[in-house]
Amino acid sequence: MSVSRSGSTAGLLLLKKVMKRPLDYGLDYHHESLKDMQIAIQHPRCLREAEASADRRIKRCLKSSRSKESNTRHLHRRIRRQLLKVKEGLAWTDLNHLLNVSSSHWDIERYIRLARRLCVLASLCRYYRKHFSTGPLKPSKVVATRVARIVKLKKRGWETVRNHLMERDLDWNASLIGHLRGTPGSLKSMVGYSSKIMRRDRRGNGWLIKHSPESLMNPVLASIFARLSECPGAEICPSFVDYDPREKQPCSVQPYISATPLPRSVHWTEAGLACLIGGSRLRASQMLCQTVTQWILDNIDRNQVIIDRFGNFVFVDHDRSFFIDHHPVTKDFQAALEARRKSASSIILAKMIKATAQIPGVLDDLAEFVTRVENIPDAVYEGLIRNASFREEQLSSIYYVDTMASRALGSIEALDFWIAHLLARKKTIRVHLSRRLSEVLGSNKRYL
Question: Distance between CA atoms of 48 and 116, rounded to whole angstroms?
């Protein structure tokens, strides 16, 4: 018993040191959820094995090394890997604060895992400083400053978005999951790769629930954009963020609509599109405006469309909105980005424009939609972009920047560059679309 108490006491001291001075352990800034480590402190079992785990890692690291220089390099690499694990855990616990999750709903096991990872990190750093005091353990001052700035802008952006939604009386948090009935029904057989479950509310309405990291923030942010711009058809199936007390983790929820999905890989002909639209101005505007929305959001998983029982076209699955489809630090990054920028407006296919523009009033609807997009406050639009995921399986790219790596600044600069690219798009939407309409419709007439 005394051994366990001693072990937990040592682990508790290590944990408190990280909480007090996170920058000394390679963390970029003072994460909100570090203040909640009292949860883990109340469960000392999570700390008893942390030091032993760190000792095993150090021994394996030294065993594979042949010199002091090699020892330093291997241990430093080990610390960096552990740091990324810590930051991954912090990404999830910080999300609790973003969602205003009450302590009664906190996932204790997640906090316990985070505390264990923090203790291992602290043990590795302590050994490194004792035996190899020459190498830096902190992120460079330039990197830390840039990360702190990004985090500050993310927080400010999210507050701006929430305040604007409150003024417009629009919800982003459903607060619904706790009231849904019955055993969740698995929908893994549905089109798509992420697992989904469906549960019903008191009125029998179905709700689609996703727990995967990629399915959390991006579809909600895309849904917020669509509702602010009043994009035709997008209001039928909005996405919300919620917290699932059964699964003890955040999720996204959206109304489950019994509908006919159009094949994702279908190559619609102009005649086929015209047949689907059936001369309806509403359906034509829904299809054209939502296609433009996919382009504005830079959604790389577009053309997932359903038709509900009223004949409305609804684009779904915005998981990869505001999403760059390349790792930021690669030699191909700039070339890939430049290629996407050049081909951006041509994403609105010629056959889509021809099939919809011929219906009276559709281009008027498009012009009004573009005006509403332009009227979204710049600070709100920036807040949506800054809080989107940067790559698949990441709540936020900034948590996955290896701030000790020589290429860390390159990652941050790439992220800033991508955000600037998306922000600039809002200011040029009308110009790009007008040019594209002229190319397709073959007229010198000024559109939009």
Answer: 9
Is residue 290 within a helix (H) or strand (E), and if so which, with residue range? helix 281-296
Q: What are the residues whose beta carbons fall under 8 Å from the beta carbon of 6, sequence distance 6 or more?
A: none
Q: Which of 264, 292, 308 is nearest to 362 (CA)?
A: 292
423, 381 Cβ separation under 8 angstroms: yes
156-168 pLDDT, tens digit each: 999 999 999 999 9
Q: Are 199 and 182 in contact (CB under 8 A)?
A: yes
> Encoding tokens for residue 53?
């785990």
What's the whole-number average pLDDT of the chain?
A: 80
Q: Which residue has the tokens 């000792």?
A: 55
Residue 365 has pLDDT above 90, yes or no: yes
Q: How far apart are the first and last CA of the chain?
A: 76
Amino acid at 213: P
Alpha carbon distances (Å) from 404 to 141, 153, 390, 409 = 11, 22, 20, 10
> Residue 293 contacts by C-beta under 8 Å, 6 or more apart in sequence?
222, 225, 226, 229, 231, 234, 299, 315
- Under the banding of pLDDT at 50, 70 and 90, the label for residue 354 is very high
| Environment class of 285 (CB within 10 Å of its CB; exposed 0-12, middle 13-18, buried 19+) | buried
Mean pLDDT check: name the lowest of 96-110, 114-128, 336-350, 355-369.
Answer: 336-350
- DSSP tag of 173: B
Q: Cα torsion for 263, 264, 265, 267, to the nearest 10°?
A: 70
Question: Using an 8 Å Cβ cutoff, are 224 and 154 in contact?
Answer: no
- Name every residue whose Cβ is closer than 8 Å to that of residue 104 and which is 6 or more positions away in sequence: none
Which residues touch 156 (CB under 8 Å, ≥6 apart)? 383
Q: How far lies 271's CA from each of 63, 278, 350, in Å?
A: 69, 10, 12
Structure tokens at 3: 């051994």
CA distance 324 to 425: 14
Query: What CA–CA distance (Å, rounded) separates 262 from 77?
Result: 48
pLDDT value of position 65: 61
Tokens 């018993």: give the residue.
1
